[in-house]
Amino acid sequence: MSLFLLFFTAAVVNNFVLVYFLGICSFVGVSKRIGPAFSMGLAVMFVLTITAATGYMIYHHVLVPLHLEYLEYVSFILVIASLVQFVEMFIRKTSKPLYDSLGIFLPLITTNCAILGLALFIVIRDYDFVESIVFSFGTGAGFMLALVLMAGIREELDLAPVPKPLRGIGIAMIVASALSMAFMGFAGVSFGG
Amino acid sequence: MKNSSTIGGEFAKGIWRENPVMVSMLGLCPTLAVTNSAINALFMGGATFGVLVASSFMISLIRNVVPKQVRIAVFILIIATFVSLVDRFFLAWFPEISKALGPYIPLIIVNCIILGRAESFASRNGPFRSLLDAAGMGVGALLVLLVMGMIRELLGTGNLFNVPLTGGMITPWIVMILPPGAFLTLGGLIFLGKWFEEGKSR
Predict the structure, then answer these.
(1) Is the CB of B88 less than 8 angstroms away from the CB of A116?
(2) In whole angstroms, what separates CA B202 from the centre of its chain?
């Protein structure tokens, strides 16, 4: 039960994008159409989960026993960079159109703060292995949810008469603000422990 | 990068015309996350500035030695090293700030401004120019962060740098220091910036 709560909290109550502001770059960049937004969400979810598992192993079974905790950041970023390289090759081999539509944002998953943020949160909050996996899964689901919601709204926004200086990124920020406010409705939800 | 051949121009372009946050939309995570008070914003901006200048300089020095295929990995490693230094420094000298900023300090590693400048400028230009470019971009980012932090703190709590300013004359608008306020403030700033630019070109 508590694992389910962990999942739900990570996905909705403390949504990474709308509450912690992690992964904003791809949130703004890939949320113009629902299709690519969905695939991007899947790619990020995959990288998140593997990063959580690998990061946990490296931190607790290599760095802590050797007293090398200060190498935390450097080793996490190395893991993430090589993982993203792998995902990129995989997507290019399996689906060329998807590869083209994600474009520059695919290698930029490396610098997606959500991924490094997740690895850091796992260390800070001292999750065990199963909790880490569930947490990363919830975070990925939350990221995808925010991305797809945003893409849906922005598809409709194309038809709306937005004042010229606000077009593009400006209105996206205002919409994100409203979305974030909606997600804050969950903030008061308590799960009794 | 037209018109930036002079040394002053190299520095100045980052502040307004090519401002990394407002124009290129880079490094939005810290811009939104830690600007809930002016002090946090100032320290975050300072940390970003330091890492940006140091890593740009370093990358520019080694730009001819690093093979093209592994350059991104090398850049990220250099950046991560400097961020670790800053993190330890804050932990030792400003433990309170370090606690308030939490994971956002290590997240400077993945701040797109730094990698972006490394890739598009420092890896192609000499150390002196890269230093100026990085300093300009750093100041540009710092200014945006500071303005955001000041607006949000003033509207959200009525204080500025923890000094009570409005004296209870206005009701603090709590939502401004919460996540929605961050998006709203940035949206508003972008609107003002574009509106101003448009008025100038008309």
Answers:
(1) no
(2) 30
Question: A79-133: per-residue pLDDT in tens?
Answer: 888 888 888 888 888 888 878 877 767 777 777 788 888 888 888 888 889 989 9
Beta strands in chain B (DSSP E): 159-160, 163-164
Cα–Cα distance between A61 and A185 in angstroms, integer? Answer: 39
* Chain A nearest C-alpha distance from B107 (Å): 6
**Helical H segments across B62-124, by residue range:** 71-93, 95-101, 112-117
Q: Supply φ then ψ for residue A19, to 5 degrees.
A: -110, -40
Contacts with A178 (C-beta within 8 Å, 6 or more apart), sequence order: B180
Contact B107 A117 (CB under 8 A): yes
> Are the beta carbons of B103 and A81 separated by less than 8 Å?
no
Which of A73, A81, A124 faces B73 most closely, judged by CB atoms? A81
Predicted ipTM > 0.90: no
User: Which two three-digit tokens encode residue B157?
Assistant: 């709590």
**Shortest CA distance to B63 belongs to which of B50, B75, B80?**
B75
Question: CA separation (Å) from B187 to A166, B31, B148?
Answer: 8, 12, 11
User: B53 CB contacts (<8 Å, ≥6 apart)?
Assistant: B131, B134, B135, B138
Q: Are A112 and A25 spatial neighbours (Cβ–Cβ below 8 Å)?
A: yes
pTM exceeds 0.80, yes or no:
yes
**Of the partner residues A24, A171, A174, the one whose CB lies closest to the CB of residue B28:** A24
Rounded to an integer, what distance in angstroms lies between the CA atom of residue A136 and that of residue A128?
A: 12
| A78·B73 Cβ contact <8 A | yes
